[in-house]
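Design job #97: recover the sequence.
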């Protein structure tokens, strides 16, 4: 980098910024801060990436967040204990520098501590002044432990003492009392026992997702399995990944934008369809599925004329399967 900047300066094709950049690269304070930030943001980026995983369940995401904070604590301990082995492991870029001034190390540790404090505060829904402003984060953190007891199907499958199933019922009662789930979503001890017996009959190595799929298959013929499967889904979505929330929020602008010509009273229903409904080119299949289930007579115009002029791309999309159209089957 320095050689490239020097050549740029020697060529005369410069606006003065190259001189400033070269001075920064030769400034040991700047280089130390840059190396430390590479290590710090490496841990932060890895933690953030894991939290965006759509297959991660709420309690797994909470554990990953705690792991990220633990990694920062270990980085601080490595510096304070001056452990050479830990320094190379926790600070690979910073430890490669020949020397680092003590005052700079103190500044780095202060930054890491502030970053951890801010991350903990944000996880509780607190702003910079320590106000929650109606955020449910703190309440949600306590609810995740109960959600795990109920909705971690893999752990439930591995229970060997039937008396432990009483904790599932207590967790259901806790979530209902905290208004994290409605009373109508609660399951009783008989439901829990029935589901437990079913889970113990499934393959031992099955994942949570596979066990839920098995429950949903049984739910077509059993109200017990249907209630428990719906409760599990509700709890899995109790704390969705940030990427999902951002995607859902981006739709709000389309529905409530100033360009809207439709009645605003219908906007809430339109949001539910946009979030949960099928792709547009599969909406006809969904209407037919609802009609078959509820024996309703919908007034629909013929699509033959439109189909005749559809392009190849639209026809290809309509020929694929959309899982969300089968929700009412």
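Job complete. Output follows.
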């Amino acid at each position: 980098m320095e050689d490239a900047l020097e050549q740029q300066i020697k060529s005369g094709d410069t606006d003065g910024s190259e001189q400033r950049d070269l001075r920064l690269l030769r400034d040991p304070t700047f280089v130390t801060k840059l190396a430390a930030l590479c290590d710090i943001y490496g841990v932060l980026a890895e933690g953030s990436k894991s939290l965006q995983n759509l297959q991660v369940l709420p309690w797994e995401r909470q554990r990953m967040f705690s792991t990220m904070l633990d990694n920062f604590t270990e980085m601080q301990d490595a510096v304070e204990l001056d452990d050479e082995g830990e320094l190379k492991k926790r600070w690979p870029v910073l430890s490669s520098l020949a020397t680092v001034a003590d005052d700079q190390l103190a500044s780095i540790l202060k930054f890491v501590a502030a970053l951890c404090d801010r991350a903990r505060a944000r996880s509780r829904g607190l702003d910079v002044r320590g106000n929650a402003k109606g955020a449910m984060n703190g309440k949600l953190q306590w609810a995740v432990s109960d959600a795990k007891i109920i909705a971690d199907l893999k752990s439930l499958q591995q229970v060997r003492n039937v008396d432990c199933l009483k904790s599932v019922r207590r967790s259901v009662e806790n979530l209902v009392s905290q208004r994290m789930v409605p009373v109508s979503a609660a399951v009783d001890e008989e439901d829990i026992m029935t589901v437990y017996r079913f889970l113990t009959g499934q393959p031992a190595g099955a994942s949570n997702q596979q066990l839920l799929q098995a429950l949903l298959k049984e739910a077509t013929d059993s109200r017990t399995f249907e209630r428990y499967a719906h409760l599990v889904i509700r709890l899995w979505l109790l704390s969705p990944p940030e990427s999902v929330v951002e995607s859902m929020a981006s739709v709000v602008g389309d529905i409530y934008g100033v360009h809207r010509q439709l009645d605003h009273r219908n906007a809430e229903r339109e949001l539910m369809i946009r979030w949960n409904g099928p792709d547009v080119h599969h909406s006809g299949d969904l209407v037919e599925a609802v009609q078959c289930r509820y024996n309703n007579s919908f007034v629909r115009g013929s699509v033959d004329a439109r189909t005749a002029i559809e392009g190849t791309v639209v026809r290809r999309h309509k020929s694929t399967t959309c899982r969300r159209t089968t929700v009412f089957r």
